[in-house]
Amino acid sequence: MFCRVLNVGLMFVKDKIEHQLTVGYRTSASAVLIAKDRIIKEQLLPLYEIEFVVRFDECDEKLAVGIATELITSQNVDVIIGPTCSNAAIISGVTAAFYNIPLFTWGLSTSSAFGNMDRFPTTGLLSVNSYSLGIAIHSIMLSFEWHQFAFVYSNKGDNEKCSMMKNDIGDVFAETEDVIITTTIRLKDVTSVEVIQALRNVSARSRIVVVCLAEGFNYKRTFMLAAKDGGYLNDEYVYIFADTKSKGYYVAILGEPDKPIWEDMATPSDGRDKEALMAFGKTLVVSNHLGSGFTDGNYDEFKNSVISRMKEPPFNCVEDCKAVQYSKVVDRKDVYSFESHSATLFAYQSPSFFVK
Hints:
Catalytic activity: GTP = 3',5'-cyclic GMP + diphosphate
CATH architecture of the largest domain: 3-Layer(aba) Sandwich
Number of helices: 12
Main location: membrane
CATH topology of the largest domain: Rossmann fold
Pfam families: ANF_receptor (PF01094)
Enzyme class: lyase
EC number: 4.6.1.2
Structural class: alpha/beta
Number of domains: 2
């Protein structure tokens, strides 16, 4: 029986340390092999043989546009999965639209720009976008009858996430009249001195503070301890940590168990964990709660399979994946969703997508 080859281009982040935890190649790429097995088992594409072409865009726009073009024009892919960051995915999505090739982005791609079907007619977003997060914040504000807030963010540790969130949340509240953003402050660095200075400016305008900071760098803990030290942690203030990729009050650590957000990640510890725990009692978290909550046996089996199958083709990741930090998958439901959606995407049988 004749089988047509379905060429799937994969774009990953491999060596950017700040993204290895959330969308790292070594702990997520083989999810597509699990999806492929499901397609074969369920006979979703009986007349197709699926092959993969792997590239590393490193969430860099220049690399992404070049790789997307090469995958389409030289590798003749039928579909692209990735990139996993907003800016790289945006420019790749425009390229894919020009060539009429479907592109599915996931992970850290949270920009609401992908909702523009005229601009991105062939792009599918598999992530929660930060515009939706803004709608959630708006609902919280109305529930508590809060009508104004300040937005404080930093790009330290992640150049995209909080900037995208600032823009998308700004768009949400520009369309409403019942809640306003009184001020927006960007922290150049997340230090006690800078946080206290920012909160001094905030205090003249608001008592509700929405905060966006990168995960995994102790930044949220530093922020709350600075608020306490500066006298901005009392019954007048509420701090809302907003994040599209978060586990709430726990921090995912590559290759290690999750850690409570109030515990110091530095060695030696500063001995202020109890103070930090009390400080976080003045906070709320708005998130899709990435990987939190109950997980069943299927998900546990999936996590173990992702690690073990990185050794298989086309990845053949043996020496490069043997470090301790790559020995387990962090509880990341986006990778699980990536696998689940991949099976559906590969099985999409519309000729306008896969038949040139």
